[in-house]
Design a protein that fits this description.
Layout (H helix, E strand, L loop, with lengths): L8 H11 L14 E3 L5 E4 L2 E3 L4 H12 L5 E2 H9 L7 H20 L1 H4 L3 E3 L3 E4 L7 H17 L3 H12 L14 H27 L3 H14 L4 H13 L3 H19 L5 H11 L6
Antiparallel strand pairs: 1-2, 2-3, 4-6, 5-6
Helix pairs in contact: 1-7, 2-4, 2-8, 6-7, 6-8, 7-8, 9-10, 10-11, 10-12, 11-12
Length: 285
């Protein structure tokens, strides 16, 4: 998710300036190459941002990146490229694609930056990036820090770290790469981390009393994920705490209609209790 996708982009920039946790930029002092997968797949280095060409080459690089520093077995690469129906030449074709990927990265980003980034191992290949040169690793670190700060009751610090973490996103995971069965599982796992980071950010902001600021973001999130009852509950609660009782009840009727139409279900007990609390004139404080 980019900062422009969410309400409060200027706040995001201010937070990043104070916290100074970098994303993955095209130029680094040590000249090392980096990769971005939280959005379109990109390789960066030497002042250049490059999107690898060819669907199979992109898939190979994507799978190496989501498992950075692990050995990705040739069998897993074959499964990803051919979805269980590989040709007799699959193993040699994988080697050829790896060779072409290395050549392309060296040509676009410079031989010195790319050397040894993709290593050949006994059973497969491994992507070896320098610390801070993979956006997923940066996001995961910041997400973990934000979660720890929230558990410790330091909501302001938690919000800073989670804002910075979510600011690294530029779209859906590997949005320009076709997902086979192997890659789809990894992408789903990463997207779940993004959802959890969003939830923690909302918890931190609500704990700080920023209900009015959260309403536009929550409306956007429920539009993207209309079956997520947790998000609907937070929107209803935020509206109620802003003194917008009528809007809160309309939001409850909206989610009830969506659940009935899409799933044939009634709202969860938590949502129904929230409705009853508002109807009974419960305090919004």
């Amino acid at each position: 998710m980019s900062s422009s996708d969410r309400n409060g982009g200027s706040t995001m920039r201010d937070t990043q300036a104070r916290f100074r946790i970098p994303g993955v930029t095209a130029s680094e002092p040590d000249g090392s190459v980096g990769f971005r997968i939280l959005g379109p797949l990109e390789a960066v280095g030497g002042g250049v941002t490059h999107r690898p060409r060819g669907p199979k080459v992109r898939k190979l690089l994507a799978l190496l990146a989501v498992r950075a520093h692990d050995i990705v077995e040739v069998d897993a690469l074959v499964e990803e490229l051919w979805d269980g129906a590989p040709p007799p030449t699959a193993v040699s074709t994988v080697r050829t694609h790896i060779y072409h990927l290395r050549q392309e990265l060296e040509r676009e980003l410079g031989d010195g930056a790319v050397r040894d980034v993709i290593s050949t191992e006994a059973t497969g290949y491994s992507l070896r990036t320098a610390p801070g040169r993979l956006d997923l690793e940066n996001f995961t670190r910041l997400y973990g820090q934000g979660r720890a700060e929230l558990r410790a009751g330091r909501r302001e610090k938690a919000l800073e770290r989670l804002d910075t973490a979510l600011g690294l996103w530029r779209g859906r995971t590997l949005s320009d790469v076709g997902h086979g069965r192997v890659l789809a599982g990894h992408a789903a796992r990463i997207e779940e981390l993004r959802v959890r980071a969003q939830e923690l950010r909302i918890e931190a902001a609500m704990g700080l009393g920023r209900h009015r600021e959260l309403v536009p973001e929550l409306r956007r999130l429920v539009a993207v994920d209309p079956l997520n009852e947790w998000l609907h509950a937070r929107l209803i609660d935020a509206l109620h705490r802003c003194g917008r009782r009528g809007d809160a009840l309309r939001a409850f009727h909206d989610v009830r209609a969506v659940l009935a139409e899409e799933l044939g279900l009634e709202p969860s007990e938590d949502l129904r209790q929230l409705q009853h609390h508002i109807l009974a004139g419960g305090s919004a404080a």
